Predict the 3D structure of the following.
Amino acid sequence: MKDLIAYCGLDCELCEAYIATKNNDDALRRKVAKEWSELNHVEITPQMINCHGCRVDGVKTPFCQSLCPIRQCALERKVGTCADCAEKVSCGKLTMITSSSELAKGNLGLN
């Protein structure tokens, strides 16, 4: 599985935080910070919109670094992605993503 597929199956290369970081695009950082602040009802600053990807070394957004329950679980279990976890089909954490993302389901072999 390619390195920029997140533990949950989402494709980091499609994430605007990753794109803004890769392209050093401050306008996109401002746009994403505003959207994510409104969506999550918390203050997210453009400076927080930096991420090299969930499973690779480098900077991550605060959520991806330490708040994402899926990433934290995968790190604890030492799995490559959730595709490698015996509980992937019944996992409530993973369902938060796979219930609304056919891409994630496909990347994890759940469809």
Q: What stands out?
A: The CA atoms of residues 33 and 67 lie 17 Å apart. Residues 12-107 form one domain.
